[in-house]
């Protein structure tokens, strides 16, 4: 009985836009999606942490995924959202994205785990590329995104 090789089956992803690219967050880590709001700055935090927000009485640190990935500064619009991630063994973390697009379901066959090498260094945050309706979606490795 080998349980390690169990088929993971289809996984749902929240597809977001960051600059001109589409990225996916595994929905099992997404606790909430909130509109952009006032972020209280925290002194001496990592350069990509924008500060904290108060979400229903819980203080949630918020980071700029653009800054962490070495992209241009965030541009806040009516479409800007904060994705609240709740990874295992850790508290909630907010990630600023340009736009939330849709939820997609990807089968194992739709995901290429080999394509995750890029010259820009973004590859460390990506653990696969999904294909959905002739579009490519870079799939975030949640632990890499939120780790210091």
Automatic annotation (TrEMBL):
It holds the Pfam family CheW. SUPFAM superfamilies: CheW-like (SSF50341). Residues 10-148 form the CheW-like domain. One of its GO terms (cellular component) is cytosol. GO terms for biological process: chemotaxis; signal transduction. PANTHER family: CHEMOTAXIS PROTEIN CHEW (PTHR22617:SF23), CHEMOTAXIS SENSOR HISTIDINE KINASE-RELATED (PTHR22617). This is Purine-binding chemotaxis protein CheW.
């Amino acid at each position: 009985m080998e349980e390690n090789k169990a088929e993971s089956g289809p996984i749902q992803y929240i597809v977001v836009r960051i600059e001109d690219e589409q990225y996916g967050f595994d929905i099992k880590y997404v606790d909430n999606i909130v509109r952009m709001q006032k972020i209280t700055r925290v002194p001496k935090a990592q350069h990509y942490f924008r500060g904290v927000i108060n979400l229903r009485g819980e203080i949630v640190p918020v980071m700029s995924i653009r800054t962490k990935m070495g992209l241009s500064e965030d541009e806040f619009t009516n479409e800007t959202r904060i994705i609240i991630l709740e990874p295992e063994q850790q508290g909630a973390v907010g990630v600023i994205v340009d736009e939330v697009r849709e939820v997609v379901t990807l089968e194992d066959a739709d995901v290429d785990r080999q394509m995750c090498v890029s010259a820009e260094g973004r590859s460390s945050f990506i653990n696969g590329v999904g294909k959905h309706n002739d579009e490519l979606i870079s799939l975030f490795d949640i632990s890499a995104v939120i780790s210091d």
